Amino acid sequence: MTSRAALSSRFAAVIAGLGLVIVLGCGDATGLSRRYPVSGTVKYKGEPLAKGQITFAPTSADGRAATGDIIDGSYSLTTATPGDGAMPGSYKVTVVSVETDTTKLQEIAKGGQFHHDKAFAEANKNSKKLVPSKYSLPDTSGLKAEVKAQSNTFDFDLPD
Fold it and tell me: Which domains occur in the chain, in start order?
């Protein structure tokens, strides 16, 4: 009986170990490969950018973009789930920061109307760009990053 109990105990340990390998070895429910933390700061003319969005656009066709909100000059990236970071690889980086007067949109929403394409287009047309437009496109921003299989920090200071 002792050998049967020992065998049963070993079998349970092997099954538990395999379960742990499966849980830790696989990515998450997204089906994507492992992402690594990416965070940093964005400054414009030496001052922290108050608000905006940063995007890491992969340079390879099999990559996946990662984005993050810039708040008081700081950001962290998300690929699929909040704060999950980015996959290792080379990226072209873009920064968009605009200030939009949403007063008219808020007035329309108060009236119960949620279809406001014309008002939305008008508000966007009158938006004030807080950084030059060149930073909004991967091919003109001049910003690059190489995400490694580790925690990553990238700081960007936009000079003009």
Answer: 2-158 (2.60.40.10)
